[in-house]
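Final report, closing paragraph on structural work. Over the funding period we assembled a curated collection of sequence-structure pairs, and we close with a single example.
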Amino acid sequence: MEYRIRTDLFRPFAVLALAGAVSLVVSVAVAASAYRGRAQDARESRMLEVKGLAVKRVRSDIGTWYIGVRGEAQELKEAYEKLDGGFQRVRAFLAERGFPEAEVEVAAIRTDVQHRRDWKGVETHDVTGYALHRGITVTSAALDRMAAAAGEVTRFIGEGFLVDSSTPEYHFSGLAGLKIELMGLAARDARMRADQIVGNAGGRIGDLVEAQMGVLQITRPLSTETSSGGVYDTDTIEKDVRAVVTVTFRVDS
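Its predicted structure, as stored:
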């Protein structure tokens, strides 16, 4: 009987001791986790993200220019004669301006049959005329010559020919290599900016952690136009190619 009483007396103390031990273990675990969290925050807070910029002026090296010729008449034969007259005039003009046949691509003739419409505007089966179209595409590296010719070819409208001239498109074929070059220049610019920021605060830039390059912005000279998907100007022979690199550095004390 005495033994049972003593056992019952010590049982609450044993429970309290066990609870205290568990509490101590939990407290240590929480403290360790908090310490690791503070250490992680400290490491993250010692990172610096900066953006570097590089811009280079380039000259396009290939151009494409589309010219459309049309012939319209009530009779198919007459429409073809008008089309062919304008087509031959344009071909002669291109040869005079120094574009060889190898640079001139001629499309097949497209024929559109025109029908009369009734009083409701519904197209009927009655043929009222024909419209013939033929396209000419010039692809050349003679960009200045192309730009000058594009401004002259529509003069044939005054001679009675239906000629449409699109604005030439100018392209730069060396973008792949240029992108690598600009990435290096932009990363160097980012490093200079980081050195200035951290150096003025008494710190020192450490290792490079990450570098991400954005899309290229290819614009007309001195333009500030940008787009999330990238800008590609084809209207000007000379272009500015702009690259931005986002770089993350480790900061040392």
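The radius of gyration is 38 Å. The chain has a mean pLDDT of 84. We thank the funder for supporting this effort.
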